[in-house]
Amino acid sequence: MRSDLDKYASAKPACQKIADTLLSITGASRITYRIGTSTPGLLPVFVESLASTPAGFLSLLVQPDIDLRQAETFAFVVGEKKILLHNDCLDSRIASPQVLVEKYGAKSQMLLPAFVDGEVFSMVSVHEAKGVRDWEKEKAEDGRSMVQVLIQAGKDFLEALGVKGTVPSETDIDVA
Predict the structure, then answer these.
(1) What is the pTM of this model?
(2) What is the mean pLDDT of residues 29-50?
(3) CA 121, CA 46: separation in Å to the nearest integer?
């Protein structure tokens, strides 16, 4: 699995910088960027950025025990090719993985898939552990919406990897 990611090793510092910037702009608790492997639907964490978070807040890079292929959220964003905003992970019509909420402390999240030739290539996740958030209404300091910030980060990740892909637009959002 990791050997599939080796071809992107030279882009890891640039991707880490993008994740760190996204964390700073959103004020979230965790950012992950996952890249697909030769196993369909398997997207291991490539880079992660963590804020100062509550004690016991775990890294998904160190303990990646969420199989996205089994997650309703993953099936939704891949099937619908949409950005998913979970303002409250516990009160949503599309269930977040239980382990993400219970073990990793996510209370709110934004998910952005990227596609290459119509297939999921990568996923940007923005997790908030401090409480629920209304992602759609929040603005960055520069006036951009959090969704615009997320979309730009998704494009920046693809560019850093040298991959020609697409991400959903601002009109392709579902607030669940």
Answers:
(1) 0.90
(2) 83
(3) 12
Domain with residue 125: its CATH number is: 3.30.450.40
The answer on pLDDT for 1 being more than 50 is: no
Q: Where are the beta strands (DSSP E) in the chain?
A: 30-35, 45-50, 83-86, 108-116, 119-128, 173-175
Domain count, the chain: 1
pLDDT tens per residue, range 127-154: 998 899 999 899 999 999 999 999 999 9
Both tokens assigned to 70: 């089994």
- The residue segments making up the domain with residue 139 are 2-175
Characterize 73-101 residue by residue with b for buried, 16 or more Cβ atoms within 10 angstroms of its Cβ, and e for exposed.
bbebbbeeebbbbbbebeebebbbbeebb
Location of structure tokens 């016991």? 56
Which residues, other chains included, contact 21 with Cβ-Cβ below 8 Å and sequence gap of 6+? Answer: 153
